[in-house]
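User: Let's play a game. I give you a shape written as tokens, and you guess the letters that built it. Ready? Here's round one.
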């Protein structure tokens, strides 16, 4: 019997400053890419992979996102989806959606780590006598990244859960707008399992760097001491980036990674959106 699927955190709280004026009246996750809202692409992929729960954080124009998707996303009966499902061992027809309304609750976005910390009680409901279970595992991905070839696999979850990694990241070749990349890749020392580590490289390190795709698997423990000092549920609205947590964990060889070479785009400017929507 398959283990219960883990939830996913979809990051959708950003203002989308570089996308203005398109985002003045529409939140970036609702901008259309090839006829669908950006946020719909990962929801479809999660359903095809059998992952039936998602938490979406919102801030700028967040009420539009909640109005669009409500409490559930259902796969539509289109022929392309039915064909793809024939090749999937597990899939779900509906993804249940919960919202973490940072704008409504605090007046603005809490940045990535702050937003995840705020949503932890929804991602990993506390057990009796405890706060957020430290071994809770969940997907994290940005709601404004286009990665139509990425497949959410239970096998990746199982492999991650059997490791001692705090995060597993998918990296991509550096796009033109981010030539220096973010992190390095290196086989783990004395590894017999093929584990690859993400590296926090110094500025003068000559080894290749890759760009974080914004897709990853995470343990709730990364958002608790000693890695993170935000109180469970982030009741004080602490704004905190994710990068420092990841880099600290990388320095202790607690972050694994893989290279994803499928289609991927950070839809960060109107020009990139226009390129994605240009006739093929």
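Assistant: Ready! My guess for every position:
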């Amino acid at each position: 019997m398959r283990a219960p699927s883990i939830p996913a955190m979809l990051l959708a709280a950003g203002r989308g400053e570089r996308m203005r004026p398109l985002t003045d009246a529409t939140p970036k996750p609702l901008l259309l890419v090839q006829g669908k809202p950006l946020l719909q692409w990962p929801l479809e992929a999660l359903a095809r992979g059998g992952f039936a729960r998602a938490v979406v954080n919102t801030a700028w124009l967040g009420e539009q996102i909640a109005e669009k998707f409500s409490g559930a996303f259902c796969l539509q009966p289109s022929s392309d989806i039915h064909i793809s499902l024939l090749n999937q061992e597990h899939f779900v027809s509906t993804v249940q959606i919960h919202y973490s309304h940072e704008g409504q609750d605090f007046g603005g976005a809490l940045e990535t780590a702050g937003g995840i910390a705020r949503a932890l009680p929804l991602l990993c409901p506390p057990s009796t006598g405890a706060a957020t279970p430290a071994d809770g595992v969940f997907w994290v991905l940005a709601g404004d990244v286009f990665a139509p070839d990425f497949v959410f696999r239970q096998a990746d979850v199982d492999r991650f859960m059997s490791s001692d990694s705090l995060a597993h990241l998918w990296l991509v070749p550096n796009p033109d707008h981010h030539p220096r990349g973010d992190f390095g890749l290196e086989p783990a020392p004395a590894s017999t399992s093929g584990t690859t580590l993400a590296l926090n490289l110094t500025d003068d390190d000559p080894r290749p760097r890759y760009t974080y795709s914004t897709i990853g698997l995470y343990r709730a423990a990364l958002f608790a001491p000693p890695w993170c000092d935000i109180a469970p549920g982030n009741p004080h609205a602490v704004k905190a980036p994710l990068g420092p947590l990841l880099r600290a964990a990388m320095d202790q060889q607690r972050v694994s990674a893989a290279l994803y070479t499928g289609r991927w785009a950070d839809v960060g400017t109107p020009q990139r959106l226009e390129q994605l929507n240009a006739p093929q």
